[in-house]
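Z., the sequence and structure:
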Amino acid sequence: DRDGNPFVTAEVLGYAAERHATVVLGRHLADLRRLAIELSMSAHLVRCSPAVAGLAEASGDTSPFRADEPYRRALNGCYARLAATARALTGAVPGEEPRAVLEPYSEPAELVADLRSVEDSLSTHAASALAESRVAPVRRSVEIFGFHLASLDLRQGSEVHETVLAELLSVAGVVADYRALGETERVALLASELSHARLLSSRWVDYSELTRGELAVVAEAGRVCARLGTRALPHYVISKCESVSDLLEVAVLLKEAGLYRRAVGPAGGHGPRLGMDIVPLFETIDDLARAGSTLAELLDLPVWRALVDERGGWQEVMLGYSDSNKDGGYLTSNWALHRAERDLVATAAERGVRLRLFHGRGGAVGRGGGPTYEAIRAQPPGSVQGAVRVTQQGEMIAAEYSDPEHARRGLEALVAAGLEATVASDDGLGADAGAYHAVMDELAGRACSAYRELVYATPGFVTWFRTATPVGEIAELNIGSRPPSRRPSDRIEDLRAIPWVFSWSQCRVMLPGWYGVGSALDEWTAGDPERWELLAEMHRRWPWWRSVLANLAMVMAKVDLGIGSRYAELVGDEQLRRRVWDPIVAEHAKTLNALARVTGEDRPLAGDPELARALRNRLPYLDPLNHLQVSLLRRWRSGDRERAVRAGIQVTLNGLATGLRNSG
């Protein structure tokens, strides 16, 4: 992920891919060596299949001690071929040297076919149990992990692509000022570039550092795909995607590395080909609102539709939960995402394209977190067509997957939700859907206004936020995988969503997960009992609304404004402190009241006693960490840079994140 991270370079990409390949090839080699030791049946006792006999003959294993052991010889041959593959791909054999020198496998499917031959042969002489318990797991491992181990997505911001293309086009003499072109002119120009084989870049030109870096990354991506296959780098995600030209710019860049091939003429018989899926990421409120129309324009473009058809008719679209929340607040973000999904589903259906949605969820509710099963079941009809992608990151990886049994149950729930959402024909709202959607349009607008009034329109809010939360220490202590801001700036717009949400979690205010909801519901109902009853009816009937309020309730149960006020005291300017803190306190009271009226429960987690009990037992151990953190922040900011103070802050940050769980 290069979006705002200058440390992810072509060298890092190449190193990651090579390490993946080394690890997985070492595992496969060890598995083959173990199988060769175990499957020692003699040809005097069993008769192997002709396929295995052929593998044994071609194995190069001429030892007289194994002359009557066809399975062992066949697997030694597989080992020798895979060792040659490892040497070709990584320059070394991560295991024992083979007993023979054979040709490498050209792709994992060849090794899979050899292992299937061994399985089939074992089944012919009453050894099916060995085939199922010993060989099949190795074959499945090769099928799943190939020679690449794990797929890596490339990701970069659209503004970077625009800057690089502008330089390439200018230096190549195609257009002097690409940035000055309108969207229609850009699309026409980029489509023209994709229609011929000429490249834009030249090794004889001294480009800017940014352009050199991006060209190096796509060149390395081309080399990785050529060596390890396209499964190693299947997707290129475009952050802050706003238009069709944003996607075409990436296609032109991939063309520079051979990852886009133009259409071959009538004699060739195939259209343009992409070595990687190009995935738009819609993540601001405005971009989400335009997502459906952007996809329509994209699919109506002949060159792009040809690419989609060539890749099986699938178009993947990523939805950004984190930045849309930072942009418009919790309720507005959730509704914008839901409306975008409905628009995207309708657009794809109208054009006969299969849509796969990629949900960029974080651990915190303010970043799309919460129970995955309920989240997937609450998706609009048609948005899960047997395929869905979901990010899991941060402390949630350890929480979800550190225990094998817990991980298996979680994955089963994910699969179950995907199956149920796939077969669901509608959301059960019937003729009331339009009325419910109209209500949400109004609520989302009011919630956005309340949220932006505090975060973007309150004088001094940025100063308050950077003083009353540990966001500065999070950056200074180098916690996280990327710089806290996309560019050097104090603006909230440039701050990454992870430190934004994480900071509010640390001070126990959790603002991104609830602020604006209370005002929106209060203003819309205006004390009218019938409107409150309509919201309660929506809660009973609509899975999406129920999921939104359930996650809201979870956040409200973790909010502690008493502790939050200790952090607010870090703001020395009392007038500024009250200007920001008083609206937070007032909105908190409104949100608690509104949540109780809609759900009919007097406490946020009355409907989830198990979670309520867990929090009741856990939070008393976390409260002292908050008080300790405030004290340490005062010392650190006053100039006390002792190692113990620094370590203490980091311990409290980690401890609170672990205890609060979905905190960032």
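The radius of gyration is 28 Å. The longest strand covers residues 314-320.

Let me know what you think.
H.
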